[in-house]
Design a protein that fits this description.
Blueprint: H1 12-16, E1 24-25, E2 34-38, E3 42-53, E4 56-65, E5 68-75, E6 79-81
């Protein structure tokens, strides 16, 4: 990686899977890329893929907020890597009426 450019997400080659086929998978086989996404506050999420636009890098991210799943493409400035493993919260169904 160039010493002039640094990224918490790795090199450009890491982010694009070393190919020019379009959006790259954000995970290596068997590895989940946990991130935090800024949705008014920092929430845990899963990075699905990267893509590049004229305005910069975009991240396709999935996260849950107040029991609502959101999958959205957000600017890279709204995504940051999680430095340590984040255990998913166990599913707890709502009690019946």
């Amino acid at each position: 990686m160039s010493s002039r450019i640094s990224s918490d997400f790795g090199s450009l080659g890491d982010r694009t899977g070393g190919t020019a086929r379009g959006p790259a998978a954000a995970t290596e086989e068997g590895r989940t890329r946990w991130v935090e996404v800024d949705d008014g506050r920092w929430l845990p999420g899963v990075l699905v893929s990267w893509s590049h636009s004229p305005g910069g890098w975009l991240a396709l991210v999935a996260w849950v907020d107040e029991e609502r799943l959101t999958v959205a493409t957000v600017p890279s400035t709204r995504v940051r890597p999680v430095r340590r493993a984040v255990a998913p919260t166990p599913y707890k169904p709502h009690p019946g009426p």
